């Protein structure tokens, strides 16, 4: 009841503002604008909370019950927690390695299993969700080392790279790109496909949409700077494994890039797509109208379902 009352109060406050000034974005519903405002104001103050609280808060956004229609198995991979998420009708030979977002310092299996389960069900494959080490306790390259070790673990167990993919959102998108680059440079077999959703791939934060979309989105420059300092405190942020937009992307597998037209990291997605095309990579960029950062993970927001369907189709087509 308290949560419902708070929801009504927030909707009422935003509705009053819209009557006075008009909608923040022309095509946003009252509910969408309210959700955006809650996230917007929380993100600008979340750095004042202890990091442990921030890590717990992200779990509050997902249902308490487990995702339906899948079998979940917690395992240990190279010393890290991971979870197999296997839909009832999955092709067990096809595997998605998923690297969650959260600025390299928050996020875990619990916060992302519902989304990964949704992708796995629609794509008809099994997914492995990795709980890689987080900053600032474990800065770069700890998370990358964990992702590479997990890829090696999968190969050692007989999974065929030609039937595997790597994907992630936000910082997990950046980690996906860094993992692909590290595998390529080491001469290791690459997955058949990759996908990055609202990717954070430029820790120098040179994209203009960080400013122009700030009023709509919930990831401000100040938060990005905090995350970047935690993750790469003693590394040049132009290092290609930290900011993959500065890498030579030649030789990477077919890449799907998704972003929201209203998100601050839109330019990260645009530049990554341009660099991939210049390097001869098969790439597809989808920018969803009026959508904010990592919208595809959010329940009940416009375009989220369409984005998940597009991701599932990309995985089915290449695996």
Secondary-structure blueprint of this entry?
Elements: H1 2-21, H2 30-43, H3 51-57, E1 70-77, E2 80-87, E3 91-99, H4 109-123, E4 125-130, H5 142-156, E5 164-169, H6 171-186, E6 193-197, H7 209-212, H8 221-231, E7 255-260, H9 266-278, E8 283-288, H10 304-318
Parallel strand pairs: 3-4, 3-5, 5-6, 6-7, 7-8
Antiparallel strand pairs: 1-2, 2-4
Helix pairs in contact: 1-2, 4-10, 5-6
Q: Based on Cα principal axes, name the global outline.
A: globular
Q: Please list the strands of the largest sheet in the order they lie side by side.
A: 1-2-4-3-5-6-7-8
Mean pLDDT: 95
* CATH superfamily caption: Alpha/Beta hydrolase fold, catalytic domain
SSE ordering = HHHEEEHEHEHEHHEHEH
Describe this structure in words.
Helix content is 41%, strand content 17%. The protein is α/β, with parallel strands linked by helices and 319 residues long. The protein has a single domain, classed as Alpha/Beta hydrolase fold, catalytic domain (Rossmann fold, 3-Layer(aba) Sandwich). The protein has an eight-stranded mixed beta sheet with strand order 1-2-4-3-5-6-7-8, with helices on both faces. The protein starts with a helix and ends with a helix.
Labels describing this entry:
eight-stranded mixed beta sheet; 10 helices; alpha/beta; Rossmann fold; 319 residues
């Amino acid at each position: 009841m308290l949560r419902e009352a708070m929801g009504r109060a927030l909707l009422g406050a935003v509705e009053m503002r819209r009557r006075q000034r008009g909608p923040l974005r022309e095509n946003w519903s009252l509910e969408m604008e309210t959700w955006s405002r809650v996230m917007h104001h929380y993100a600008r103050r979340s750095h004042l909370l202890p990091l442990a609280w921030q890590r717990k808060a992200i779990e509050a956004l997902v249902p308490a019950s487990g995702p339906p229609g899948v079998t979940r198995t917690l395992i240990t991979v190279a010393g890290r927690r991971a979870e197999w998420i296997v839909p009832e009708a999955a092709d067990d030979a096809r595997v998605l390695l998923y690297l969650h977002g959260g600025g390299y310092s928050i996020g875990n299996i619990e916060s992302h299993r519902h989304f990964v389960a949704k992708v796995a069900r629609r794509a008809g494959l099994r997914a492995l969700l990795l709980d890689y080490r987080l900053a600032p306790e474990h800065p770069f390259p700890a998370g990358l080392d964990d992702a590479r070790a997990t890829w090696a673990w999968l190969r050692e167990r007989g999974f065929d790279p030609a039937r595997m993919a790597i994907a992630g959102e936000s910082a997990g998108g950046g980690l996906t790109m860094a993992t692909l680059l590290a595998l390529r440079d080491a001469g290791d077999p690459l997955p058949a496909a990759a996908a990055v959703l609202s990717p954070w791939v430029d820790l120098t934060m040179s994209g203009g949409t960080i400013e122009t979309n700030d009023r709509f989105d919930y990831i401000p420059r100040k938060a990005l700077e905090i995350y970047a300092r935690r993750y790469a405190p003693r590394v040049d942020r132009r290092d290609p494994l930290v900011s993959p937009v500065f890498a030579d992307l030649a030789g990477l597998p077919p890449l799907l890039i998704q972003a929201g037209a209203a998100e601050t990291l839109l330019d990260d997605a645009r530049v990554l797509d341009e660099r991939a095309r210049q390097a001869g990579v098969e790439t597809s960029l989808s920018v969803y109208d009026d959508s904010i950062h990592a919208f595809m993970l959010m329940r009940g927001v416009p375009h989220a379902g369409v984005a998940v369907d597009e991701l599932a189709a990309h995985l089915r087509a290449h695996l």
